[in-house]
Design a protein that fits this description.
Ubiquitin-like (UB roll)
Length: 243
């Protein structure tokens, strides 16, 4: 039979041992003089348009901080706020390093600035404005008639259907093809204009992906500059008007 005094001694020993373990863990995590996992190196990969220094600054990590307590979720959210950044992956490399791998948005089109008629805005994947542009690259598509949330980097296209249409064009490699402009002014009548003045009538937003698929297939069989217009609004065969 264990007496009350013995029970109390056992409990005290358990408490003391537990307290010692907790204290050791706290010291390992928080004592500034214990450099078991201090951050000494930050490696950045995948960046081309955003500088390594910009990424490090946005992430907010500090050399010398405890690697176990680095705020990875907060840094990930901060990096995704950079207009060019599409994807972020951050991992700890023990004992002293962090690896930041980013994926950048591909530029897909330009839009004219409403504040400056001569100014251009570079539009990237996801319908995000990533920077201003000085001149139009002849190989990049000009988007007109679409609304933006603003004109500073980080602003976005208001209508997700425009984003979807541009994503389809990019997927089919038609962004930098024979087309110069796409007009979204009328939701029921999206029109693309190509070299030589050819007009591609894509019709309404709904179902536009299928019509873009048909256009991509058609371009493999014809010389687009031989036609004045191509109407893809109707199911079945496209209506081609030769020059």
């Amino acid at each position: 039979m264990i007496r009350g005094g013995s029970k109390r001694k056992i409990v005290c020993r358990v408490i003391i041992m537990g307290g010692g373990l907790i204290t050791a863990a706290i010291i390992a995590l928080y004592a500034p003089w214990l450099y078991l996992f201090d951050l000494r190196e930050i490696e950045v990969q995948g960046n081309y348009r955003v500088s390594t220094e910009q990424i490090k600054q946005a992430a907010g990590f500090s050399l010398g901080e405890n690697l176990l307590r680095t705020p990875i979720e907060r840094a990930t959210a901060a990096l995704r706020d950079l207009p060019w950044i599409k994807d972020v992956a951050i991992r700890r490399i023990y004992p002293h390093a962090l690896e930041i791998v980013v994926g950048e948005r591909a530029p897909i089109a330009v839009m004219r600035s409403s504040a400056d008629e001569a100014g251009l805005l570079l539009l990237a994947e996801g319908g995000v404005i990533v920077q201003s542009a000085q001149e139009i690259d002849p190989s990049i598509l000009l988007v007109s008639g679409a609304r933006l949330t603003g004109e500073a980097p980080g602003a976005r296209l208001v209508d997700d259907r425009v984003v979807v249409a541009l994503a389809y064009l990019q997927r089919k490699n038609l962004i930098d093809g024979p087309f110069q402009r796409i007009d979204f002014s009328t939701p029921d009548l999206v029109i693309m204009y190509g070299k030589g003045g050819v007009k591609i009538i894509l019709g309404r937003y709904d179902g536009i992906g299928e019509r873009i698929d048909r256009l991509a297939a058609l371009l493999n069989a014809i010389n687009i500059e031989d036609y004045r217009s191509i109407d893809l609004r109707f199911w079945g065969e496209a209506i081609l008007a030769p020059r």
